[in-house]
Amino acid sequence: MQFHLNGFHPGDPEIADIAARIQPSGAGGSVPHQVDVLIVGCGPAGLNLAAQLAAFADIKTCIVEQKPDRLLLGQADGIACRTMEMFHAHGFAERVAKEACWINETTFWKPAEGKPENIARSGRVQDVEDGLSEFPHVVLNQARVHDFFLDVMRHSPAKLAPFYSRRMDDLRIDPAASPGDHAVTVRLERLDGEHQGEVETIRARYVVGCDGARSAVRKAIGRELHGDSANHAWGVMDVLAVTDFPDIRYKTLIQSARDGSMLIIPREGGYLVRIYVELAKLEVGERVAGRNIVVDDVIAKARRILHPYALDVKEIAWWSVYEIGQRLCDGFDDVPEAEIATRLPRVFIAGDACHTHSPKAGQGMNVSMQDTFNLGWKLAAVLRKRCAPHLLHSYSAERQAIAKELIDFDREWASILASAKGEGADPARTQDYFIRHGRYTAGTATHYRPALLTGGASHQHLAAGFVVGKRFHSAPVIRLSDAKPVHLGHVVKADGRFRIFAFADAGDPVAPVSAIRALCEFLGRSGESPVRKYARSGDDIDSTIDVRAVFQQGHRDLAIEAMPELLLPRKGRYALIDYEKIYCPDLKSGQDIFAMRGIDRKQGCMIVVRPDQYVAQVLPLDAHAELAAYFDGFMLRGN
Fold this sequence. Notes:
Blueprint: E1 34-40, H1 44-53, E2 61-64, E3 78-79, H2 81-90, H3 93-99, E4 101-102, E5 105-112, E6 115-126, E7 138-139, H4 142-154, E8 166-173, E9 184-190, E10 199-209, H5 216-220, E11 226-227, E12 232-243, E13 251-255, E14 261-266, E15 272-281, H6 295-306, E16 311-324, E17 327-328, E18 347-349, E19 355-356, H7 364-383, H8 393-417, H9 427-436, H10 438-442, E20 476-479, E21 485-487, E22 498-503, H11 515-525, H12 530-533, E23 545-550, E24 570-571, E25 576-577, E26 582-585, H13 593-596, E27 605-609, E28 615-619, H14 624-632
Helix pairs in contact: 1-4, 1-7, 2-3
């Protein structure tokens, strides 16, 4: 798509009438007096959480924001491959892919040999390694990401909308409350027009602070950000410009001889470009605001770094200056480490409220959304009495460890880019580091360690490509019922359900001794089956745990009518048959999922996938007791 040709305009570019692109948003009236979950902050983390919870009409959620309306421009823009996988679970990855700028290659520039006052291209690499994800790395205004989440919320069973112009003044937790009580009381000050200064009180079972680096929620629970003080000032601007620099539509890293570094990010629409410019090294304790930097300073520095190429800025859609500092909280909820065994969490923090990054690694927005993608299904499961409340401890345990790993990566990456004038710049090291750490920037390096929700690696040899603790790496398959090519991972929606993918062994799948048939018999009929044990009366058989199977034979070599009953479940009001549980390898295209993901053809295996798309277990097909024991560790029996 091409747009922004005659100036930057926020909103949906497919709406021809520019004035109609910005529609009123937000809920009217007062906030409810009592909710299950209160979300403070309408950034990517908060909206991602709200979109997940809005899928459940029986969960009462409220989301509030201090700003007077939704975001229209600026802030983050990089969307990692892993984030696109999550967007697909929400149902809007295709909309993002259509509108965004795709980052296909990254180029590197350094001082020219013999003429160091000029820059010259020193390298070019593929941005994302082949096969890492079926989705691309893209760039799109954060405001549009917000719009897509708001659409999901608006069209959801809960019909959720944010309450804008609310500032959190106070948060108190009742220590004597029982797990089901509305134990958290929050006071909100209204900042809108005729209601200015009015105070609203809301009681919640859980509160989630997604309210940024100056988080009021974090302060209320006594948590602090710790880490490096900011020591480099950078400028960032989204511009429409004319230039003879040949790589203006590539992601480009430039290290100059005397004027520091610059990062160019092509933006959506074919004309807009984001430019990050290294401005100055700050003294200890100094803040960038004290430098009184104006946008002309940022443009002038960019022109000096680009020499001998010209940069004629025609329009500035947005700009800012900031200092870099990597900081982290030691916990992401209100429970001190010493009290974990005796106390359940009530208040959580996510995103910039508990970890801050430099923008240039593209981690901030992506990691923030992964925080709440981890938390959302857990809150829903506990509130709907599908899982025991102690499950909620796993949020801080899992995400704090991941944030620390990413901050360590970000710190080194930022130091590589922040070259001092005339010293420290090493373009070859920059390019090598970028290539070696591509999985961090793609968002696929996250690896949860063995714990309540994540098993060990004792059976990893059965499926080497589905690493326990890492995200479920999708691959192409053919659906047996209609021969449609699909991606197996795309069945994992943001609906709070676990998945069991059973990969058949080499035997005849319809034989009485078939391991996969025995597994389906256990899951469909046994009183110890987690599928039956944790289903609710009146719900479909797959309402809590969704079982799917992948066979080794081609789709023309299997008879669907001979498949186990569990894989053709009857569902809904009319007991209609669900034909979309059975798959085969895509042999015609040569994309055999068994070969691509290293699945043991002789034994087969089953893969348990969490609602947030991470592999929880790899087990043999006959490990019925081990499978049941896994779910028994945190799930609650149905009525």
